[in-house]
Specification:
Blueprint lengths: L2 E6 L19 E5 L7 E3 L3 H9 L4 E5 L2 H12 L4 H4 L14 H13 L3 E5 L6 H13 L7 E11 L3 E6 L1 H19 L11 H18 L3 H5 L9 H14 L2 H4 L4 H16 L6 H14 L3 H21 L3 H16 L10 H14 L14 H17 L8 H15 L7 H21 L6
Helix pairs in contact: 4-5, 6-7, 7-9, 9-11, 12-13, 12-18, 13-14, 13-15, 13-17, 13-18, 15-17, 17-18
């Protein structure tokens, strides 16, 4: 594994063009909470880096201007430590501090060639490595987790004492903050965003799973806890938020506590939808959530499913025989294990129920028939006849609503060929409000 330390040497005392010899350079006390860095008195951090990381096999890469090189060579040539005196500042690391692109390219080339990197921004020209790090984050061009430390000598007593601190956690914090803020707006996180903290990264990974499932309308994995198996994704996220806020990370991310609390409340709301008695209510509220975040195809698809589920409950009111058949079909659909060839399907139940409410006696075929099941289809034939006899589609006041839902769903699923996005959003919002009126202004269908 190749490991390296990147530092950009400065000119001690702020020199820019005056590269004369140093006269009695003043030392300062350097200390750090980073275990491998000892408390020492030095002119600057270069000897500290050589001693702390060089002995562990890290390459010390000192980018420099010609003037900075001359001054730093004076420092190491007279140093009391043999390891420091034997260090060579290679001319191939020379840079032009005004050539940002050239410097960025050189730093990028170095970072790509190493598996683990330490970046020191303590010297002069510190704007260069800082800008390089920002550039790296924006482009997501390098795995940020390969950076072990971003070292900075913070002045505690002017020109006398410095504490070498690690800025890496602040990069993690910026990445983590960006990722969770993005999630609160649209349920998505960038897969390229990585942080070093394992607990925070685990949380981001689980957020990504949430995104994949909710945008695929795959709600079982999101919401259903399975005994003797992994908890649902929502449950995992709630548990991870608890660990983050209660653990040592909680102090580090205290400024993000309001965003995490917002996510926690939202997840608990989604979790509470499991408690809704009827599936059409759960689907309806999920449709509203996705509509609010601009996922219009997902929203109209869920609304279409919700309407179909609701229609299946309306049809159950026709007779006890119809209710019994629908319940049995529904039970079989939930219990059937064969994912490749499903004889019973919740989609079929909701879709055929919606179509029967639309077409009534003009419904084509058998209601809830099953391939290669003669006994079941005898029952299906009888139920179809009962429904056509007793369910009066002309007296069903929501046929036009069902047509509008189907029309918009079909239009969106076929590349939205005829409407502007603003009109789509408005129409779905109108349909959701209308369905809310239907659900809660009439008596609830019996199960």
């Amino acid at each position: 594994m190749r490991r390296g330390v990147i530092t950009i040497l400065g000119t001690v005392g702020g020199r820019t063009t005056d590269c004369h010899k140093l006269d009695n350079p003043q030392k300062a006390l350097y200390h750090s909470q980073i275990p491998r860095i000892s408390e020492e008195e030095e002119v600057n951090t270069l000897p500290i880096l050589i001693k702390a990381f060089g002995k562990e096999g890290y390459d010390i890469i000192s980018l420099h201007t010609p003037c900075a090189r001359q001054i730093q060579e004076e420092i190491i040539a007279t140093h009391e430590d043999q390891q420091v005196r034997s260090y060579t500042i290679s001319k191939e690391w020379e840079i032009n501090d005004r050539d940002f692109d050239g410097t960025f390219s050189k730093i990028y080339e170095i970072m790509v060639g190493y598996d683990r990197i330490v970046i020191d921004v303590s010297h002069g020209f510190r704007h260069l490595p800082i800008l390089m790090i920002v550039d790296t984050l924006i482009q997501s061009s390098i795995d940020i987790t390969k950076i072990e430390h971003i070292l900075f000598a913070k002045e505690t007593i002017p020109r006398q004492e410095y504490e070498i601190i690690d800025l890496k956690r602040y990069i993690d914090l910026a990445n983590f903050s960006y990722a969770i803020a993005s999630f609160t707006k649209n349920y998505t996180t960038l897969a390229t965003i990585r942080v070093s903290d394992r607990l925070l990264q685990s949380f981001l990974d689980t957020l990504a799973q949430f995104s994949h499932h909710i945008l695929a309308n795959s709600f079982d994995a999101l919401l259903k806890d399975r005994p003797n198996d992994r908890p649902s994704i929502v449950t995992q996220l709630l548990q991870e938020i608890e660990k983050i806020t209660e653990g040592e990370e909680g102090v580090f991310i205290r400024n993000l506590s309001s965003i995490l609390e917002e996510i926690r409340k939202h997840l608990r709301y989604i979790q509470s939808l499991q408690e809704k008695l009827y599936p059409y209510e759960r689907l309806y509220y999920l449709a509203r959530l996705l509509h609010g975040r601009g996922y219009y195809l997902n929203a109209i698809t869920l609304l279409s499913e919700a309407v179909g589920a609701w229609c299946s409950y309306r049809l159950r009111e026709t007779s006890e025989e119809v209710k019994k058949l629908i319940r049995e079909y529904e039970r079989q659909a939930y219990e059937e294990k064969d994912a490749y060839y499903k004889r019973f399907s919740i989609y079929t139940l909701y879709n055929q129920s919606k179509n029967f409410c639309r077409y009534g006696s003009n419904f084509k075929g058998l209601y809830l028939s099953v391939d290669r099941d003669e006994e079941w289809n005898i029952r299906s034939e009888k139920i179809t006849a009962l429904l056509k006899e007793h369910f009066n589609q002309r007296e069903f006041p929501y046929v036009n609503f069902l047509k509008r839902v189907d029309r918009l769903r079909n239009n969106l699923s076929h590349a939205n060929s005829s409407e502007r996005l603003e009109e789509v959003a408005q129409e779905i919002g109108s349909l959701l409000s209308e369905f809310d009126q239907i659900l809660y202004s009439i008596s609830t269908p019996s199960a």
